[in-house]
């Protein structure tokens, strides 16, 4: 499939109306890194760091993590890599941590909540990341941030880690970006100050959608019940785009939906200029975007919304069939 899109691999995802959408890839293993070149991705928009913690029967050492992160940065050849700090809990349980008996793990003690309550692992990971960067640019993203305070506390941990490294005589990153994943509807309504402070936001659509519609992403019975192109969800996303534009905050979308061409087209029409997806999706999404006029698609979406449709998908599909 990768071959089919080889001719546009080096081309930008530029629409017919002249807008460029940056396409990044999701990764989680060293073995994913060669896809940076083969897919034509501009960077790694989401590096999930759970796997290294999940595949062993004991906590990985800082030196091991640091060596791995350094190899990831080496292999990325200067392209931006967004490292997401440990996102455990819910569906991802560490074999060597005491299992938590929780009635609703997806709404439970997970991700940044664990990181802030038991900061040992997060501190170790932040230190490993700073050492791996060794003076190179570094980008870190905190998962599942539900309110401004959590971002502030996580950033304070990062500041402390930097200070410690400085005192120990280690190089600190040349540039540092600290972002948050927007995976709970609450963060969309965080104070302006949060939007001004955060370096970037990335929408974790898999989680955001499950909380927006209250439909478990693991439950086959309900997980496909609500369309991503549901008018309510698109309107919600549109408001996030507006807030980010107003505060000049870089915004991306890194859930699975970003890799689906029709969904990606609609996100671009709603104003998204950065998407992160599995490497195999870069070609098909780019192919779609390069045949699109976003203003026309936007008008199609607006009209479907005005006409009171539940999902804009039928109208969008009609338009795409006739226009591309
Ligand atoms: C998401 O929630 O959309 C996301 C990218 O993170 P994960 O799938 O790892 O929860
Ligand atoms: Mg998530």
Automatic annotation (TrEMBL):
Signal peptide: none annotated. Transmembrane segments: none annotated. It is found in: Cytoplasm. It comes from the Bacteria. Belongs to the PEP-utilizing enzyme family. This is phosphoenolpyruvate--protein phosphotransferase. The chain holds residues 425 to 748 of 748 of the full protein.
């Amino acid at each position: 499939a990768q071959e089919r899109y080889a001719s546009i691999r080096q081309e930008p995802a530029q629409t017919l109306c002249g807008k460029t959408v940056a396409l990044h890839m999701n990764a989680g293993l060293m073995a994913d890194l060669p896809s940076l070149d083969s897919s034509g991705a501009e960077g790694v928009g989401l590096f999930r760091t759970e796997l290294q913690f999940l595949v062993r029967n004991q906590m990985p050492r800082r030196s091991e993590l640091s060596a791995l992160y350094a190899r990831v940065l080496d292999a990325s050849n200067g392209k931006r890599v967004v490292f997401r700090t440990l996102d455990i809990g819910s569906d991802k349980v560490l074999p060597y941590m005491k299992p938590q008996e929780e009635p609703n793990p997806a709404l439970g003690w997970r991700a940044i909540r664990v990181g802030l309550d038991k900061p040992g692992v997060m501190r170790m990971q932040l230190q490993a990341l700073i050492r791996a960067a060794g003076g190179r640019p570094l980008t870190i993203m905190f998962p599942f941030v539900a309110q401004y305070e959590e971002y502030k506390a996580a950033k304070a941990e990062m500041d402390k880690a930097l200070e410690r490294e400085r005192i120990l005589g280690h190089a600190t990153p040349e540039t540092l970006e600290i972002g948050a994943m927007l995976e709970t509807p609450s963060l969309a309504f965080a104070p302006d100050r949060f939007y001004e402070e955060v370096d970037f936001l990335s929408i974790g659509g898999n989680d955001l959608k499950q909380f927006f519609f209250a439909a478990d992403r693991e439950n086959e019975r309900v997980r496909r019940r609500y369309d991503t192109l549901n008018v309510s969800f698109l309107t919600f996303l549109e408001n996030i785009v507006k807030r980010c534009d107003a505060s000049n905050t870089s915004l991306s979308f890194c859930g699975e939906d970003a890799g689906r061409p029709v969904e990606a087209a609609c996100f671009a029409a709603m104003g998204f200029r950065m998407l992160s997806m599995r490497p195999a999706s870069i070609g098909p999404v780019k192919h779609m975007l390069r045949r699109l006029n976003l203003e026309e698609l936007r008008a199609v979406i607006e009209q479907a919304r005005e006409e009171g449709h539940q999902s804009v998908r039928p109208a969008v599909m009609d338009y795409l069939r006739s226009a591309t």
